[in-house]
Design brief:
Helices cover 23% and strands 17% of the residues. The chain has 157 residues and is of the alpha+beta class. The longest helix is centred in the N-terminal third of the chain and has 13 residues.
Length: 157
Amino acid sequence: MATEQTFEELVQEFISKSKDLIGTESDENLPPWHPSPFDKEGPPYEFSQRMTPEFISKYSLTIADDNPLYTDPDYGKKTKYGSQIAPGPVLALVRYPSVHGATKPGGYPLANFISGSAWEFFDVIHAGSKFRSSKTTKEIFEKPGSRGNLVFMTSDN
């Protein structure tokens, strides 16, 4: 007869299996597989969208940023950038900037809270840009919280 795991046992299993993922490439948010036209060799993996002018404009308006640098290709051509550019947060669509840890059928009884991301830019994102990404679990640690331990996971993208 199968016995059910307690909440605490499930949390410890999640932490243990998630620690096994440290330093390995995450399989979250990979490009679509066959017959997709995108390169599936990696890591790094090819982003399955193109930064077309339409894609950039729609994304910008979705985040309520109507800056003509982002929404008007003709305006962008007249600027120092020479083309329409994309707002930096669009890179979160390339590959979601966090990891979620181990998985199992039915899931684990844990919630995720994404506390932030840091980006370092070396150039603007032009219309037509293509991206490849890699994402690995960097570390997992616990800290005491007011209602029990909190589990922290960091990733490198």
